[in-house]
Amino acid sequence: MTAAEERVVVGPLLRADAPRCAELEELLFPGDDPWSAQAFRDEIGAGHVYVGVRSGDRLVGYAGLAFTAGPPQPEAEVHTIGVDPAHQGRGLGRVLLHQLLAPADEVGATVFLEVRTDNAPAIGLYESEGFEIVGVRKRYYRPSGADAYTMRRDARA
Questions:
Q1: How confident is the model over 82-95, as pLDDT tens digits?
Q2: Torsion of CA 152, 10, 27, 127, to 10 degrees
Q3: pLDDT (tens digit, 9 = 90+) per residue, 55-72?
Q4: Is 114 tagged catalytic?
């Protein structure tokens, strides 16, 4: 079943979603210091772009982006994207990524992100959306010590 076939709703991530986001973080990133509910509340409260995807009443994915530099050369950074393992492979990660890229594109921002070097599905998604690997951060993820690629997508009008 794809995102188009699964009845999902995409909208702003709410502070009330923070406990569910933390629960998903534990499932998705158990060895890499998953974000707490408070971390999500802080990021949402800071006014960054955070979106969620729901299947029925259940939050099944989340994503966040922050603008790190303003004009004349705006930049943004993808903070996180996570999809419930039971809903992966249906295009929800792409839906969430598009929700993050739209406001970045509105202001012509270059977008950066980090991704585990061993996360082939995510790397493939990012490359298909115009990101390219521009560097490696050794032992970026803690406590696992996994390496990360830094990826960049040039500004789009």
A1: 999 999 999 999 99
A2: -20
A3: 999 999 999 999 999 888
A4: yes
